[in-house]
Design brief:
The complex is a heterodimer.
Chain A (H helix, E strand, L loop, with lengths): L16 E8 L2 H10 L10 H6 L9 H16 L4 E9 L8 E12 L4 E10 L3 E11 L5
Antiparallel strand pairs in A: 1-3, 2-5, 3-4, 4-5
Chain B lengths: L2 H12 L5 E7 L6 H11 L4 H4 L1 H5 L31 H11 L4 E11 L10 E9 L3 E3 L2 E13 L5 E12 L29 H8 L4 E5 L5 E2 L14 E5 L3 E9 L13 E7 L4 E6 L12 E8 L5 E7 L1
Parallel strand pairs in B: 12-14
Antiparallel strand pairs in B: 1-3, 2-6, 3-5, 4-5, 5-6, 7-8, 7-9, 10-11, 10-13, 11-12, 13-14
Chain lengths: 143, 318
């Protein structure tokens, strides 16, 4: 278990900031993410279908946004954290060529359940807020 | 729509509240390592709880788990949706919205709650219903209704694994989207271009060339900034300029948190800076946190290219 450490509930404080994660949005990520979540809606892999809706290219599906949000949090918390809730508001689409930067901050701790709430924002460099919300995780209470 | 027509429409739409979109149905595949690995690769997620069986065997859980964010993926229909979706109460409801002109669609919120982790070998069951439809709302996108679906996931033993609420706005688009065709590259936004007029263009030109100039009255030698045609002291129209050493101190400062402006860094620190030569300049302070800035702080400036099209004086803690 050595190379993977998990934060203890006591190690985390309201106001702690998570390390930012910048993700290059590529066609590969959009199509690969859609396939990996079994989302075959044409707008996520077929450029002409996406263009018919008024966007210039294929765009990221929601299940990939959820996946990136959960990864962002567990990259920081470590693997023993248990994800309890992903609550997200959807904003501007992610298209190939954009860079989405995810940032987060601990906003709440619940001592009785060992749960920690993290406000997370994913902003792309062209159209701004792609996703914004709260991830709730449970952390181990002792080492 | 007349009030009577609206009432008739709403009677039909609200009849969908509480209707089951699908009965409890098993996913086509049990939770399995291959689909988990595929997901973890695409997300760039190296969490060993998902993919490292050796690590997981020694962890608190004792085995690998499926990423909770994959919950909805297991029950997706799959490739056949490329040929269109089969009709169900939700597609029927959407069709009814479309018929009345509410053709716009926008997913606004999605909330997943997880009650139990699942591992390879478990099978997820999905049931879904239309949970609520809002009253008619005027939104920035147009007039419409929010509907919310509630998907409930359980395992092969009937234990509840999680829920997903998905909120969608169906609206009358203010303008029909026109199909995009161009293959133009997305343009990365840059900062608002400096307004360069007859009286100040020379100053920006010097910035482009890497120099911070200060206008000086030729007659009385008083310095002035921002650039303007007449000396405020002696009313002379004759002027030249000196180059600033870009040393200064903070007179006042703020942080522009909202709204975020495309092309600008997040939460930029903007300051009024008193230059050693005596004039004031508005510029950004970079290279330190907003919390570390104080009035009287000494600064040293540099002319820097801040994006593809923009060159600006930037000030750092001295």
């Amino acid at each position: 278990m050595s190379e993977y450490t998990t934060l203890n509930y006591a190690d985390v404080h309201v106001g702690d900031k998570l390390p930012e994660l910048a993700i290059d949005i590529t066609t590969g990520l959009i199509v690969g993410g859609a396939m990996a979540t079994r989302d075959y809606e044409p707008v996520h892999h077929d450029k002409s279908a996406a263009q018919a809706t008024g966007l210039p290219d294929v765009f990221m599906n929601i299940l990939t946004s959820q996946g990136l949000m959960s990864r962002f949090v567990t990259d920081w918390s470590g693997p023993e954290a248990v994800i309890r809730k992903l609550d997200l508001k959807l904003g501007a689409p992610n298209l190939p060529g954009m860079v989405m930067t995810i940032s987060g901050e601990v906003t709440d701790k619940d001592d009785s359940s060992g749960q920690v709430s993290i406000a997370v924002v994913g902003e792309n460099n062209i159209w701004g807020m792609h996703m914004q919300g709260t991830v709730t995780i449970a952390l181990p209470q002792e080492a | 729509m007349t009030p009577e027509e609206q009432k008739a429409f709403e009677d039909r739409i609200y009849a969908y509240v509480g209707v089951k979109v699908c009965e409890r149905t098993a996913a086509k595949d049990a939770v399995n390592p291959a689909m988990i690995r595929h997901w973890a690769e695409a997300m760039g997620d190296t969490n060993p709880a998902y993919t490292d069986e050796t690590w997981a065997a020694n962890s608190r859980r004792g085995k690998t788990i499926a990423p909770p964010a994959m919950m909805y993926a297991w029950n997706q229909e799959g490739f056949t949706v490329t040929r269109g979706r089969a009709s169900d109460p939700q597609t029927d409801m959407v069709e009814l919205f479309n018929e009345y002109g509410f053709t716009g669609v926008l997913g606004t919120n999605v909330t997943q709650e997880y009650f139990k982790e699942v591992s390879p070998g478990d099978t997820l069951y999905l049931e879904m219903e239309i949970d609520s439809i809002s009253e008619r709302k005027a939104t920035a996108r147009g007039i419409g209704y929010f509907f919310e679906t509630l998907a409930t996931f359980s395992d092969q033993n009937g234990e509840k694994v999680g829920t997903q609420r998905f909120r969608v706005l169906k609206f009358i688009p203010q303008e029909q989207p026109t199909a995009a065709t161009g293959d133009d590259k997305l343009e990365v936004p840059t900062r608002i271009p400096s307004p360069r007029g007859h009286d100040n263009g020379w100053w920006w030109q010097a910035v482009d060339e890497g120099k911070l100039l200060i206008q000086r009255c030729k007659r009385c030698q008083v310095l002035r900034h921002p650039p303007r045609p007449m000396c405020g002291e002696c009313q002379s129209l004759e002027w030249d300029s000196i180059e600033s050493g870009m040393e200064g101190e903070v007179i006042s400062y703020t942080c522009l948190r909202h709204p975020a402006i495309p092309g600008y860094p997040k939460d930029p620190v903007c300051a009024v800076i008193k230059l050693a030569e005596g004039t004031n300049l508005v510029a950004n302070i970079v290279g330190c946190d907003y919390d570390d800035v104080f009035i009287g702080m000494k600064l040293k400036g540099r002319i820097e290219q801040v994006d593809e099209k923009t060159t600006l004086p930037q000030f750092y803690p001295a």
